[in-house]
From TrEMBL, chain A:
InterPro entries, A to Z: Ald_Oxase/Xan_DH_a/b, Ald_Oxase/Xan_DH_a/b_sf, Ald_Oxase/xanthine_DH-like, AldOxase/xan_DH_MoCoBD1, AldOxase/xan_DH_MoCoBD2, AldOxase/xan_DH_Mopterin-bd_sf
A UniProt-annotated Pfam family: MoCoBD_1
SMART domains according to UniProt: Ald_Xan_dh_C
Name used for this protein in its record: Molybdopterin-binding domain of aldehyde dehydrogenase
MF (Gene Ontology): iron ion binding; oxidoreductase activity
Signal peptide segment: none
Domain Aldehyde oxidase/xanthine dehydrogenase a/b hammerhead: 23-126
Organism phylogeny: Bacteria, Pseudomonadati, Pseudomonadota, Alphaproteobacteria, Hyphomicrobiales
Automatic annotation (TrEMBL), chain B:
Keywords: 2Fe-2S, Iron, Iron-sulfur, Metal-binding, Oxidoreductase
Top-level taxonomy: Bacteria, Pseudomonadati, Pseudomonadota, Alphaproteobacteria, Hyphomicrobiales
PROSITE patterns assigned to the protein according to its UniProt record, in alphabetical order: 2FE2S_FER_1 (PS00197), 2FE2S_FER_2 (PS51085)
Molecular-function GO term, any one: metal ion binding
Pfam families attached to this UniProt entry: Fer2 (PF00111), Fer2_2 (PF01799)
UniProt keyword Transcription regulation present: no
Database matches in InterPro entries: 2Fe-2S-bd (IPR002888), 2Fe-2S-bd_dom_sf (IPR036884), 2Fe-2S_ferredoxin-like_sf (IPR036010), 2Fe-2S_ferredoxin-type (IPR001041), 2Fe2S_fd_BS (IPR006058), Beta-grasp_dom_sf (IPR012675), Diverse_Oxidoreductases (IPR051452)
Organism of this sequence: Rhodoblastus acidophilus (Rhodopseudomonas acidophila)
The keyword Iron belongs to this UniProt entry's keyword annotation: yes
Domain of life of the native organism: Bacteria
Residues annotated as domain 2Fe-2S ferredoxin-type: 3-79
Protein name: 4-hydroxybenzoyl-CoA reductase gamma subunit
Amino acid sequence: MNTQDMRIPRADASQDKSAAKVSGKARYAADIPANGALVGRILRAKIPHARIVSIDVSQALALEGVAAVCTGADCPAPLGGAATEFPLARDKARYRGEAVAAVAARDEATAEQAIRLIRVEYEKLPAYFDAKKAMGEGAEAIHADKPGNILREAHATSGDVEAGFAAAELTREKSIKFGEVNPAQLEPNATLVEVGRDGGLILHAATQAPQDVRACVAQGLGMDEAQIRVENAYVGGGFGARSECAPFEIIAALLARKAKRSVRLKQTREETFLGHRGRPETHVAVKLGMMKDGRFTACQVQTTQTGGAYASRSAADGAAPGLYALHARQHDLLRACANLPPCGGAAGAAESIAGVEALINEMAGELGLDPLAVRALNAPRELADCLEAVKQASGWAERRGQTPKGRGLGLACGRLTEGDDGGVAALALEVSVDEVTGKATAHKLWIAAHVGGALDPRAAESRIRTGVWMGLGRALSEETRYVDGKMLHGNLLDYRMPTLVESPDVEVVVIGAADAAPADASPVDPRTGANWAAGLSAAVMPALMGAVHEAAGVWPHTLPLSPDRVSDLLDARDRVKK
Amino acid sequence: MKSILSVTVNGRRREDAIPDNLLLIDYLRDGLGLTGTKQGCDGGECGACTVLVDDEPRLACSTLALQVQGRRVETIEGLAGDGDLTPLQRAFQDKLGTECGFCTPGMILAAEALLRRNPHPGREEIKQALSGNLCRCAGHAQIVAAVETAAESRKNETAMEGAR
Ligand code: FES
Ligand code: FES
């Protein structure tokens, strides 16, 4: 930063940035002009799990117009010190789509042709696409240092869980499957690497972690960090995909250094999906003990994630903080690795909360209690305030049980971020279910969030809306799909995120915001650097499940609640009735 | 094969010899340096590349440059020209309708087309008109509010002009 920049107050700087965004002047990585830059392209593995026997690049290199070809041999340093992930696969390819080689050529057509001329000999290995099979008896280890294909394990217990369940008047269990979700940031991955006269590199990168990119590129290329500069003036979203250096940034740098020329590496939407680092498919098994008046006595959560072949280095720890003043708790987390694109570091805290919230709704129903009152009975002060605010805003008392046929009202709570520190929220959601098509439609959502001070209320509200918006996507339509590890969702039509038409009216009550820097529309909480989407999705999903139950009389167990899933539930319901 | 394209871009007439298979988005971005038009997908999925062709929204990624022969093309850069931001652009800024900003040019142009066609759209019309434009960050409310605010300020401007 030069001295001139430092004189601009923060609010003005963010005004300048938003002015650039609305006028088209904001330059994202793919917008930086680069006359004469070479075009980079990546060759990706077509087999989900294989030993790489040999790679022959001679024909590609001989092609006129090809300036550089790189393979794993060019980069022996693992990505950011991770144990086994390399920018370009070395001994093994562990998922379909993993980068195996890369070329830089004078134009797109030449680069494409060169990619096709690279010969890779693979030796196929058994591949696993769900946690159970990956962890099964005798399964081939995806990573030599991870026997049993367990990537991570965490266990946390507090209080006397056994005694808690023994004291309970009602104990119930429920299993829920949450689909894998992709960050789907709107800006496709892109990097431009310029080579300075002194051999230094300038990366224009679509990253939210310029320091990490700098460190990882330096490490990957065996260069001094002082020789590397990373620019990221504008970044088109991240949501976990860009919070650390991704392999392609190092690949682009490797190509540029080898070719001694600038290289532009743009990725397709499909490749951007492959970069992933989103939330893995997660199974949550919950057991909850309750007294007849709704007081909780004990809670047990077992979370199993089907992680990708690799995980983000910035992994969250495993202990999922509960929402309620409940002492007897046990939480076990298991993350398996599978032959799928790399997942983010989330430890399933949001899914764990969502599972508990869903079961609370079911048990309150069974006991004939108001789910809002049950929560208020167990909630610490801040959450109780949120519940009261949602009760008022939504007219909960009058509306509940009074919605017209085919409509329902659901409720749930969540945290703003996944850790202990970010505030809590309660929300109510009105939904209709189309009995013919199985389509669930969200009509209105009321949310009250205790944001925990030091935040501009307007920015907080904006962040809440963003979180709710993403939560609805996850609840209703977003989900990745693979067949034998082949991605089926690699475009923005098959990966269905919500559009404006599907977005309900959202009423936001912000509690406890005070004294903060002027509003900027950054989707992340300046205090934690996290967005609120994961945390709020934990509330949106069970609220939707509760609303669907009131509307159609079925309790869902698999998310997202796409029309085919709802139809299946309705069919099962009707079979029982007959 | 190359052909001559005559087209008006952001108010300026131009003639360029271009390959027949050149896409409008590449003509604008690589040929003219108008990088405000964004590419968010592999074709026709996201709306980030929306430009105006004779006042109508068009996906530049799914249009051949030669298809706009003799037509009037407007990109985000042309909306305000060298002058101040338009009320619509300002409304996106004020109502926090832009976060990461990547969808913003396409979103604004889709909204601009709506407001030219229908200066006083209802909320549902706004949502419909923008439903082909994906935004991953901003909640819909901020975007809809921005368009409503812009429509309102256009109304006031016209009222003032009428009073003069
Ligand atoms: S770039 Fe996505 S629709 Fe044109
Ligand atoms: S502001 Fe980021 S995609 Fe719309």
